[in-house]
Amino acid sequence: MTELPLDSSFVAAAPGSVQLEDGALHVWAVPLDGDPAPFDGLLCAVEEDRLARFRFADHRRRYQISHGALRRILAGYLQQDPRAIGFRHGPRGKPFLDGGGLSFNLSHSGQLALVAVTSEEVGVDVEKARRLDSLMQIAERHFSDREFGALRALAQGDRELAFYRCWTRKEAYIKALGEGLSLALDSFEVSICEQAEFVACHDGREDPAAWSMLDVSPGAGYVGAVAARASGLLVKKLRFAG
């Protein structure tokens, strides 16, 4: 694969070379700008059908690499053939391992995917930061009053990064719950600063203290976050080399 610059905290590892210990969270960065051929034959029939529906070769490549890498990562922990990995889906589409065991989540944007693996409920989100002319309008519509106020108080040049920090943390939490678009983004609050934090839950459904909210931004131009229903997780960041 082409080398995509990543933060030095992401250490190259092959699937199966690391063990998931109790209380650990592994976050894998998967570059999507390489050759998809090594992932030929790994996807199931449903995934192959979806792959064939993409009109553009770039979209097909990114899908094949990200989902093929996911299968290899999970197979490494489970000591299985990647082709034997089976999935089931929750009511709103969140994938789970058929038979349980590990919890995982996948997100991709631009030329990079992140895969989070742990034993707890987990969600991950990564976004390639792009200029948004409507950034403040989006934030006012979807962020809580306190989050929007904090964003508005920042200097113009600091708002983009803070926006993406807030957005990815919210998306990671929603993905962990498997709620999709059914959960309003302003029903809970997260931090917008460098230190990731689950600040408040206004609907009373969750205790923020029972969750970990983590910044796992993988490199320049990308912002990433993980939310997991656990505290004190031992985080290991890995670069897919498989």
The helix content is 25-40%
What is the alpha-carbon Rg in Å? 18 Å
Which architecture does the CATH hierarchy give at level 2?
Alpha-Beta Complex
Alpha carbon gap, first and last residue: 10 Å
CATH topology: Ribosomal Protein L22, Chain A
The sequence of SSEs as H and E is EEHHEEEEEHHHEEEEE
Q: How many H/I helices?
A: 5
Placed side by side, the strands forming the largest sheet appear as 1-12-2-6-5
Count of individual beta strands: 12
The domain tally reads 1
Describe the biggest sheet? Answer: 5 strands, mixed
- At the fourth CATH level, what is the homologous superfamily? 4'-phosphopantetheinyl transferase domain
Shape: globular
* Fraction in beta strands: 25-35%
Highest CATH level, the class: Alpha Beta
Mean pLDDT score, rounded?
Answer: 94
